[in-house]
Write a structure and sequence with these properties.
- The chain has 269 residues and is an alpha/beta fold.
- It has a single domain, classed as UDP-N-acetylmuramoyl-L-alanine:D-glutamate ligase (3-Layer(aba) Sandwich), CATH 3.40.1190.20.
- Helices cover 38% and strands 21% of the residues.
- The chain is built from 9 helices and 9 strands.
- A 9-stranded mixed beta sheet has the order 3-2-1-4-5-6-7-8-9, with helices on both faces.
- A hairpin with a 7-residue loop joins strand 7 and strand 8.
- It is globular.
- The chain binds pyridoxal-5'-phosphate.
- Pyridoxal-5'-phosphate binds next to strand 1 and helix 7.
- It comes from Geoalkalibacter subterraneus.
- Keywords: ATP-binding, Kinase, Magnesium, Metal-binding, Multifunctional enzyme, Nucleotide-binding, Thiamine biosynthesis, Transferase.
- Its EC number is 2.5.1.3.
- One of its GO terms (molecular function) is ATP binding.
- It is an enzyme of class 2 (transferase).
C-alpha cells in the first residue's frame, strides 16, 4: 500500500549518514527506503565504509566541514521536509550536524548508530558525549536500540519497564520523542514509543533470520519518509514498524554473512 501514494515524489528526506558499500545499510538503505516509499531522498555522506555481509573492513570519515557543505548545498536549493541521521562517527561531525539541524530548524529523526552488528565502531567513544550534549537537544525523534539506549542514558535497559524508563530519561536529556527498539530482547519484537508524554507499544512477531543487516537505518528512514509525507508521528512510527517487519521477513540471503533487509519487497507489499 505504501507505493501507491500519488503524486510522486512526495516528501523530501535529507539523510546524513555513512555509506555502506554492501548496499544494505547506511546511506544506501536510506535512499532505497525513501525512494521506494515514493519520497525524494538526498544525502550528506559522513563516512565511506568498505563492507560486505561479513563486516566492516575500513572506515574513511569525511571532514566535518565537508559534511556541513553537503547539508548546506542540499538545503539551500532542494530543501527537505525531514532530516535523518545515522553513522556520525566523530565528535566533530556530531557537533557540526547538531549545529546544522538547529540552523535549518527541520525535524530530525536521529538513529544513534554506535556499533555495527559485526562489532565495528561507527561512533567513536569520544563522540558519545557530543551526542548527549549537542545532538539530543536538536532531536525530534530518537531511535536507539537497547545497547544504544543504555550507553546514552547510563541505565540498564533489558525489559519493557526499563525501556519505558530509558525513553523518559532520554526525553529529559533533550530528545523531543523517543522510540526504544526492542529487537535485542527475546520473544516478540516490542518497541516503546514515548510521544508527547504518552507511552505506546509497537509489536511484531520475532522473525528467525540471520539476514538483518540495515534494520536500524531502514526503520528510521521509513519513519523519516512518512513524516516528510505529512503523517502524524504515531502513524509514521506504526507504518515504519510494518515496513521494517516486512523488510526483515523478506530479507535477502546475499553473501555468506548477514544479508540485507528487503527494501523493495517491503514497499511493494
Ligand atoms: N554501516 C553503516 C554505514 C551504517 O550506517 C550502519 C547502520 O547503522 C551499519 C553499517 C550497521 O548495520 P548493521 O548493524 O545493521 O549490520
Amino acid at each position: 500500500q505504501f507505493n501507491r501514494r500519488k503524486p510522486f515524489p512526495r516528501g523530501r528526506v535529507l539523510s546524513i549518514a555513512g555509506s555502506d558499500s554492501g548496499g544494505g545499510a547506511g546511506i544506501q538503505a536510506d535512499l532505497k527506503t525513501t525512494t521506494l516509499l515514493g519520497g525524494y531522498g538526498a544525502c550528506a555522506i559522513t563516512a565511506l565504509t568498505a563492507q560486505n555481509t561479513l563486516g566492516v573492513r575500513g572506515i574513511h570519515p569525511a571532514p566535518a566541514d565537508f559534511v556541513v557543505e553537503q547539508i548546506s548545498a542540499v538545503l539551500e536549493d532542494i530543501g527537505a521536509d525531514t532530516l535523518k541521521t545515522g553513522m556520525l562517527f566523530s565528535p566533530e561531525i556530531v557537533s557540526a550536524v547538531a549545529d546544522a539541524i538547529r540552523q535549518y530548524t527541520l525535524p530530525a529523526v536521529v538513529d544513534p548508530v554506535m556499533v555495527a552488528k559485526g562489532g565495528a565502531t561507527l561512533l567513536e567513544q569520544a563522540a558519545v558525549e557530543a551526542v548527549r550534549e549537542r545532538l539530543l537537544p536538536e532531536t525530534y525523534l530518537l531511535t536507539p536500540n537497547l545497547p544504544e539506549a543504555e550507553t546514552l542514558c547510563g541505565l540498564a535497559v533489558r525489559n519493557v519497564d526499563e525501556m519505558e524508563r530509558a525513553a523518559q530519561r532520554l526525553h529529559e536529556m533533550g530528545a523531543r520523542h523517543v522510540l526504544v527498539k526492542g529487537g535485542h530482547l527475546e520473544g516478540e519484537a516490542l518497541d516503546v514509543l514515548l510521544a508527547d508524554g504518552e507511552i505506546h507499544h509497537l509489536r511484531a512477531p520475532r522473525i528467525d533470520t540471520r539476514n538483518t543487516h540495515g534494520t536500524g537505518c531502514t526503520y528510521a528512514a521509513a519513519i523519516a519518509t512518512f513524516l516528510a509525507q505529512g503523517l502524524p508521528l504515531g502513524e509514521a512510527v506504526g507504518a515504519g514498524k510494518k515496513f521494517i517487519t516486512r523488510a526483515i521477513e523478506t530479507a535477502i540471503p546475499l553473501g555468506s554473512g548477514h544479508g540485507p533487509v528487503n527494501h523493495w519487497q517491503a514497499a511493494w507489499d
